[in-house]
Write a structure and sequence with these properties.
Elements: H1 3-10, E1 26-27, H2 31-36, E2 40-44, E3 47-52, H3 56-65, E4 67-71, E5 76-81, H4 85-90, E6 105-111, E7 117-125, E8 142-146, H5 151-161, E9 167-170, E10 174-180, H6 184-191, E11 203-208, E12 211-216, E13 225-231, H7 235-243, E14 248-250, H8 253-262, H9 289-294, H10 300-309, E15 313-320, E16 331-333, E17 339-349, E18 354-362, E19 371-376, E20 379-386
Parallel strand pairs: 1-3, 4-14
Antiparallel strand pairs: 2-3, 4-10, 5-8, 5-9, 6-7, 7-8, 10-13, 11-12, 12-13, 15-18, 15-20, 16-17, 16-19, 17-18, 19-20
Pfam families: GCV_T, GCV_T_C
Catalytic activity: N(6)-[(R)-S(8)-aminomethyldihydrolipoyl]-L-lysyl-[protein] + (6S)-5,6,7,8-tetrahydrofolate = N(6)-[(R)-dihydrolipoyl]-L-lysyl-[protein] + (6R)-5,10-methylene-5,6,7,8-tetrahydrofolate + NH4(+)
Protein name: aminomethyltransferase
């Protein structure tokens, strides 16, 4: 078996949370582009997506050292406008949406009545004029990117809870590309002058050969980088222009998963779900102080109580002894081998050269340096609770 196929076998993609077997598989705007470059396509979040090109390990390390181009067009790009849109979104998001300035982004969470996480997402305040505004009617106020596997459920949920005065649109004709790595800014600035003025969690409107682009300095790898919303019919030409830069190679889902794991970033449907609260998930930074004090968002009662009294379980990082990775579903067990927690993501970390994982454990064990036992396929593994991220973030602030 080749090294590439071994990597593909060993990586367990944090897969398809919405995936019913009968759900139709959709194609990305860049489907033919990926196949022409040797992308190995797999079903993910209802789409055919590239898991790798040259091999997961090589692609992971290339992104850490240079710049990797990821196709994340399966994500849901949503626009919101209407009177009171800020207040309406704050009813279901615990972040400070009213205080978000133009071109500023915020990580937030869609919550249910019990304080559980329905999805995690990015919210951006759009400028009064510019992107996604056709010159007629009211300009969209908020741009939101939600997970691909949950976007249709999110849309249904938001339609149910938002007032009729709020208009929500799905930008299903827009592609979304992520350019990640320390040399991403060098490569992108050649094609789109001015993007280097952006800093982490800011966004703006740009052009490439007359094509409007909405670009944010953000991503999900822990590296510096950008996410680029572009009309789907020109996405392939733009991807060609990017990969013609010596710093850039196309990168698949396998490396995206290992990069985000090293960065300590949770993935919805695996590390986050409707039974998990932001406090359990160690995402307290997404709870704005004003909102916590007002307790004016859905699920606030439980969430504020957990902040004050502590949750029963917490998400932690694990350094696993030996070379054998532990995967999602492995158990954290006590001395009597009875389950006390569960691994939600795991794999081999190429940058570190060792297996790592995320797990939910009893709060008393969620202290760096604590040794725990993991059970997977009849074998026991020792692991040590570790601070996250495993690899330091390199955002440009």
């Amino acid at each position: 078996m080749s090294e590439t196929m071994t990597e593909a076998r060993d990586v367990e993609l944090s897969g398809d949370p919405d995936g019913g077997e009968d759900a139709p598989i959709q194609l990305l705007p860049l489907d033919a582009w990926h196949r022409a470059r040797g992308g190995r396509m797999v079903p993910f979040a209802g789409y055919e997506m590239p898991v790798q090109y040259d091999g997961i390990m090589a692609e992971h390390l290339w992104t850490r050292e240079h710049a990797g181009l990821f196709d994340v067009s399966h994500m849901g790009q949503l626009l919101f406008t209407g009177a009171g849109v800020d207040q309406s979104l704050e009813a279901v998001l615990p972040g400070d949406i009213k205080g978000l300035g133009e071109g500023r982004m915020r990580y937030s969470l869609l919550l249910n009545d019990d304080g559980g996480i329905v999805d995690d997402l990015m919210v951006t305040r759009l400028p009064a004029t510019g992107p996604f505004h056709d010159g007629e009617g009211e300009a969209p106020a908020i741009y939101m990117v939600v997970n691909g596997a949950t976007k249709y459920d999110d849309i249904g949920y938001l339609l149910d809870v938002l007032p009729d005065a709020i208009t929500m649109s799905l930008l299903d004709e827009q592609a979304l590309l992520a350019l990640q790595g320390p040399e991403a800014v060098t490569a992108l600035a050649r094609l789109v002058p001015g993007v280097d003025r952006l800093v982490f969690m800011t966004a703006g409107a740009f052009e490439w050969n007359g094509t409007p682009l909405w670009i944010s300095r953000s991503g999900y790898t822990g590296e510096d980088g950008f996410e680029i919303s572009i009309p789907g019919d020109v996405a392939a030409a733009f991807a060609d222009a990017l990969t013609e830069q010596p710093e850039v190679k196309p990168i698949g889902l396998g490396a995206r998963d290992s990069l985000r794991l090293e960065a300590g970033l949770p993935l919805y449907g695996h590390d986050l779900d409707p039974d998990t609260t932001p406090v359990m998930a160690d995402l307290g930074f997404a709870l704005a102080k004003r909102r916590r004090e007002a307790k004016d968002f859905v699920g606030a009662e439980r969430i504020v109580s957990e902040r004050e009294n502590g949750p029963a379980t917490k998400r932690v990082g694990l350094m696993v002894e030996g070379r054998q990775p532990v995967r999602e579903g492995a158990l954290v067990v006590g001395d009597d081998r009875v389950e006390i927690g569960r691994v939600t993501s795991g794999g081999f970390a190429p940058t570190i050269g060792a297996p790592i994982a995320m797990a939910y454990v009893p709060a008393a064990l969620a202290v760096p340096g604590t040794v725990v036992t993991l059970a997977q396929r009849g074998k026991l593994h020792r692991a040590t609770v570790a601070a996250m991220p495993f690899v330091p973030h390199r955002y440009v602030r």
